[in-house]
Amino acid sequence: MAKVAYVDQDECTSCSQCADNLPEVFEMNDDDLAIVISYDAEEIEEDDIQEEIDSCPGECIHWKK
C-alpha cells in the first residue's frame, strides 16, 4: 500500500515551496496554507514527496501512519 502524505497546517509557514516544487501533490489553499491534493500514487515517486518532507522549512509535511 502506498504511503499518503499530509500537511500539518498549524505548522505550515506558507512558503509554498512544496506547491512550487511538486504541484502534482501540493497546492496552496485560500488561507495560503499548503494542502495535499488528490494524486495518483503510482505516478508520483515516494522519494519525490520525501524530498519535500525533508526540505520543508516548517517541517509540516508528514506521512500518515
TrEMBL record:
GO MF entries: 4 iron, 4 sulfur cluster binding; electron transfer activity; iron ion binding
Name recorded for this polypeptide: Ferredoxin
InterPro entries per record: 3Fe4S_ferredoxin (IPR001080), 4Fe4S_Fe-S-bd (IPR017896), ET_Ferredoxin (IPR052395)
Ribonucleoprotein listed as a keyword: no
Transmembrane annotation, as ranges: none
Annotated Gene3D superfamilies: 3.30.70.20
Pfam family for this entry, one: Fer4_13
Keywords: 4Fe-4S, Electron transport, Iron, Iron-sulfur, Metal-binding, Transport
Gene source species: SAR324 cluster bacterium
Cofactor(s) demanded: [4Fe-4S] cluster
Function of the molecule: Ferredoxins are iron-sulfur proteins that transfer electrons in a wide variety of metabolic reactions.
Residue span, 4Fe-4S ferredoxin-type domain: 3-31
